[in-house]
Write a structure and sequence with these properties.
By secondary structure, the chain is an alpha+beta fold. It contains 14 helices and 17 strands. It has two domains: 288 residues, Aminopeptidase (3-Layer(aba) Sandwich), CATH 3.40.630; 148 residues, 2-Layer Sandwich (Alpha-Beta Plaits).
């Protein structure tokens, strides 16, 4: 008996020791920070950059659906591009400029050593509309570009005219110093990212046809976040991949008729069962693969002891972590998400439909594919009679998750060092972008595609994406403009 008790105690002690050792050793040395010394950027005026962002916001380059803008509605794009040429005369005098697929802009800054692989900086010109009935909720009118209490308000302030303006500010300032890059630099400003990204896709296809293979592609995606949901403190997120996108149409067919004599399994009931089955049987989460595993390890240096213990011992606490992240919505980084969005059925309250349909939007994790998702959906709903599953062909995009870009090269190291600098030494880690960006097309021309804006924002600020009171601080316009210039300088000639 005593031997059994001692044996059990020994096992418990061994288990506790293992948990403690894993906790104390969990984490990763910051990647790419010790090997990079960031060059000093040219001095760029925060007020000037903010003023130019304010002006860019005033051009109502709103896209509503794929194919926008039609020729007769293109005036805002044309007028803004005319103004850009006036605002940035050195850029427009020294760089080759092509208009692609209608209104997308492709700038090429020739390098002195053309065999070097180029750099590509992406942003987009278009913005989403403002929801009806919300105008009174804005601090600054959404298309006036008002500067109030140190912030520029309006559509495009975050998404994504600020990046476009900051990239041009960087180029203009570097040209003023006489800088001539060794490797070519491209600026790629799509005109329809918010609806299809056809402009960016066409520019990527054009570069691919010309044999261009980029050293790095940088687009919007993440920032340095002051109140990170991972740790509650400052953390630099660098997007190294983004989720794919697919919408499936679920159609339930059954006998219709009068609602006074409903069958037990009407089309609506069958459709509801299918939706509940998908909700209760989510695609699996996987903490072990990049970039999520690397993100958690990078955040470990700023985690409290118990949080670090949970992440270090996922074999024991994985279910707890999954539940906690699901409760906050953060589990979207861990798995393919399932979102029922549009439902249709009867045309009248007392008529049973013969066909009921639901559109289910999935954001596909890099661990999955559209084919594996389809297999999952069919398996989960195979017990439901009269259910048909098809891809939604009525608009919308369909794309696989992007490849995961490496974190062990010069490109990531430069971005990590810049994020660390902006965060005053805060941790930095690779992350998964949950939405779709124009960068999803860029893997055709580069293995190193990143999604990071050199700005420091709060979670409250990020609520402005497609929301009310979208804004960017005047201070951040300086950070971004000088940050892009530092990236251009640091990557110039890098092997």
């Amino acid at each position: 008996m005593i031997r059994a008790v001692l044996g059990a105690a020994g096992l418990i002690l061994l288990g506790v020791s293992l948990i403690l050792v894993r906790t104390l050793t969990y984490g990763a040395a910051p990647q790419g920070l010790n090997s990079v010394v960031l060059p000093s950027p040219p001095e760029i005026s925060a007020e000037q950059a903010a003023s130019r962002l304010s002006r860019a916001i005033q051009f109502r380059t709103i896209t509503y659906k794929a194919g926008d803008p039609v020729a007769e509605a293109a005036a805002p794009w044309i007028n803004m591009q005319t103004w850009l040429a006036e605002a940035y005369p050195r850029v427009h005098a020294n760089l080759e400029i092509e208009r692609v697929n209608g209104y997308s802009l492709l700038y090429r800054w020739a390098g002195t050593q053309e065999p070097l692989a180029p750099l590509v900086f992406m942003a987009h010109q278009d913005v989403v509309p403002v929801n009806e009935g919300t105008l009174e909720d804005w601090t600054g009118a959404p298309f006036s570009g008002e500067i109030i209490d140190g912030y520029v308000y309006g559509r495009g302030a975050l998404d994504d005219k600020a990046s476009m303006i900051a990239i041009l500010e960087a180029g203009e300032a570097l040209l003023e110093t006489g800088f001539q890059p060794q490797r070519p630099i491209y600026f790629m400003f799509g005109h329809d990212e918010e609806v299809s990204g056809a402009g960016a896709a066409a520019m990527v296809d054009l570069l691919h046809a010309r044999g261009v293979r980029a050293e790095m592609v940088l687009d919007e995606g993440f920032f340095v976040i002051e109140d990170s949901p991972l740790t509650g403190n400052v953390f630099g997120f660098i997007g190294v991949a983004e989720k794919g996108y697919i919408t499936l149409r679920l159609t339930a067919t059954a006998r219709g008729g009068h609602s006074s004599r409903p069958p037990r399994n009407s089309a609506n009931v069958q459709l509801a069962r299918a939706i509940i089955a998908l909700e209760e049987n989510q695609m699996p989460a996987d903490f072990s693969k990049a970039p999520i595993a690397d993100l958690f390890r990078a955040a470990a240096e700023d985690m409290d002891f118990f949080t670090r213990m949970a992440f270090a011992n996922r074999w024991l606490f994985g279910g707890f972590i999954d539940a906690q992240m699901a409760a906050t919505g953060a589990d979207a980084m861990l798995r393919t998400t399932t979102a029922p969005t549009m439902l249709t059925g009867s045309i009248k309250e007392n008529v049973l439909p013969q066909r009921a349909t639901a559109l289910i939007n999935f954001r596909v994790h890099p661990n999955d594919t559209i084919d594996s998702l389809m297999t999952h959906v069919r398996k989960v709903t195979e017990h439901i009679e009269g259910l048909e599953i098809t891809r939604n062909e009525d608009g919308g995009i369909g794309s696989e998750a992007s490849p995961v870009s490496p974190t062990d090269g010069q490109a990531y190291s430069v971005l990590a060092a810049l994020a660390r600098q902006l965060g005053d030494g805060a941790p930095v880690g690779p992350a998964l972008v949950l939405g779709a960006t124009d960068a999803r097309w860029a893997s055709k021309i580069s293995d190193r595609v990143y999604r990071f804006v050199p700005a420091r924002v709060t979670m409250k600020d990020t609520a402005g994406f497609h929301g009310t009171n979208e804004r960017m601080s005047v201070t951040n316009m300086k950070r971004m403009s000088e940050g892009y210039a530092q990236i251009m300088l640091a990557m110039d000639g890098a092997q």
